[in-house]
From TrEMBL:
Signal sequence, start to end: 1-28
Species name: Alicyclobacillus macrosporangiidus
Pfam families in UniProt: Cu-oxidase_2, Cu-oxidase_3
Protein name: Multicopper oxidase
Boundaries of every Plastocyanin-like domain copy: 100-208, 231-331
Keywords: Copper, Metal-binding, Oxidoreductase, Signal
Record bears the keyword Metal-binding: yes
Gene Ontology MF, one: oxidoreductase activity
């Protein structure tokens, strides 16, 4: 009888055995034809009245989403009645922070930690349909976006929680400046548990007229880095631990825009080797004047927009400077990535 990775139950970790747990069904999806009104399906329930769920395999839910150089998936959309329509499904899936490592359970949007990057333009009208396949209620908060109260995504306050098997549609106009924002679960209960399990993702706003897969005007490269210090996954960037974090390609002379997002519970001073960079925005809004630095102390729940001018070739580390966050005994691991800058000649 094979054991599956640890699962989060209440406030303690337990190891569950699939055969003993009786987790044989998944919550069915449902559609939603009217904004702001959830519609339910009949989901399988256990003898205790709780919805039955199974942990989906690695990669479940991300099909059709382009994988970007920073490792994040990009969420496609369709156009309907002048709105960009996106679809998110949150469910239990297996996740690995390094290839070959033991899979752990995640509660992820569209099967990845972080969830897929939602990329829109300033002024866009959006509808985001969220289907809940978790064994408990959830909701989604659009962190940093100025939305109407009914779209704020706080379960039990601005809306009812999205129950297992339900779909809820959020509708709003993107009226904030271009920059880095995020989304994460925000139910009335168990918000800490759901975020610990990976229920978050980046939300990037571009200037009007920017193509869906086009780099921010004035830059040759654009990356998003989401920092996390979850007890479920450890110290990660975009859900991965070094050396599994992707090397970010660039060429000498490239101007690179980095959206840096701290979704964790700790401060992380991120240090760049070989060159300085400029902080040009915070929480989506531009600074009055850029600040030049080689280390930026990121606070929980805060986003930063950073501008790099790649001036010399090399494999330049970008990492948290709190040593326990970047080592596992003798080896480098955790919250580290690098810029792989090639000579332009």
């Amino acid at each position: 009888m094979g054991k599956c990775p640890k699962r989060y139950t209440g406030w303690k970790w337990v190891v569950v055995v699939l055969a003993a747990a009786g987790l044989t069904g998944t919550v069915a999806g449902c559609s939603d034809s009217t904004a702001n009104a959830p519609q339910t399906t009949t989901a399988p329930v256990s003898a205790t009245g709780q919805t039955k769920t199974a942990i989906a395999p690695l990669g479940t839910g991300s099909q059709g989403e382009p994988k970007q150089a920073d490792g994040l998936r990009l969420l496609p959309y369709t156009m309907k009645d002048g709105y960009k329509v996106f679809h998110l499904t949150i469910q239990p899936v297996y996740w690995q922070t390094q290839p070959g490592s033991k899979p752990v359970e995640a509660w992820a949007f569209n099967g990845t930690v972080p969830g897929p990057e939602i990329k829109v333009n300033q002024g866009d009208k959006v509808r985001i349909q969220v289907t809940n396949k978790l064994p408990e209620a959830t909701s989604v908060h659009w962190h940093g976006l100025d939305v109407p109260f009914a779209q704020d995504g706080v379960g039990g306050l601005s809306q009812p929680d999205i129950q297992p098997g339900q779909t809820w549609t959020y509708t709003f106009t993107v009226n904030v400046p271009p920059g880095a924002y995020m989304y994460h679960s925000h139910p009335m209960n168990d918000m800490m548990k759901e975020e610990t399990m990976g229920a978050f993702g980046p939300f990037i706003v571009e200037p009007k007229g920017t193509g869906w897969q086009q780099v921010h005007p004035g830059y040759q490269r654009e990356y998003t880095l989401m920092l996390n210090d979850s007890s479920q996954f450890g110290y990660t960037i975009n859900g991965l631990s070094y050396p599994a974090t992707p090397a970010l390609p660039a060429k000498v002379g490239d101007k690179v825009l980095v959206h840096l997002i701290n979704i964790g519970d700790m401060n992380h001073p991120m240090h760049m080797h070989g060159m300085h960079f400029q902080e040009i925005g915070q929480d989506g809004y531009p600074l009055p004047a850029p600040i030049t630095m080689d280390t930026i102390d990121t606070a929980p729940g805060t986003t930063y927009d950073l501008s790099f001018q790649m001036n010399q070739p090399g494999k330049w580390l970008f990492h948290c400077h709190i040593l326990p966050h970047v080592t596992s005994g003798t080896d480098m691991s955790g919250m580290i990535t690098l810029f792989d800058v090639s000579d332009n000649s």
